[in-house]
């Protein structure tokens, strides 16, 4: 794929050329009824984003301004691909601040999942988790999803203090009834438990009874069958 023209306009043209009618029905399942979409396969969209990883951030903003899903998802993917590089603190902060400043243009859960771990979590590792607590207190479910998805980076690459900060966010959101939020709570806990099983057991002893069932099932997925059944049974007895 040519990278001679790296601009928001050129990227939108590339995406429009990749329209696939059979894909549009799949994409629409993730979108609001009135949200425009082209119908681009994710593999093709990621290829476009990867080819334009060096897109200036002012052009990334133009993609985020686009009404259709695919240009905005491409923008999130560009931020993610750039965050995978060796960056200095200023460069990483720039990506982080751009993500948060344009959070209103994130309209689907997969936009969050694509960029939040490396862009937000990658910057906040070793720093104060206050921004995550602020997001976790938001009335917007996708901002709360960012709060608990970003700490997935802490599981892979953070310190023990970072992991503890992620568990504190999970505790803040443990009783969230919105599936957009409580499913990633369960996913974070499942992975956190692989790194620190004792911390997961402490968390579940305190919070399992207040967690929505789908979140709890995800959280205990990797536990041995006896422990898994114990937490699920205890939670059921309190509901």
UniProtKB/TrEMBL annotation:
Superkingdom per UniProt: Bacteria
InterPro entries in alphabetical order: ARM-type_fold (IPR016024), DNA_alkylation (IPR014825)
PANTHER family noted in UniProt: ARMADILLO-TYPE FOLD, DNA ALKYLATION REPAIR PROTEIN
Protein name: DNA alkylation repair protein
Species this protein is from: Egibacter rhizosphaerae
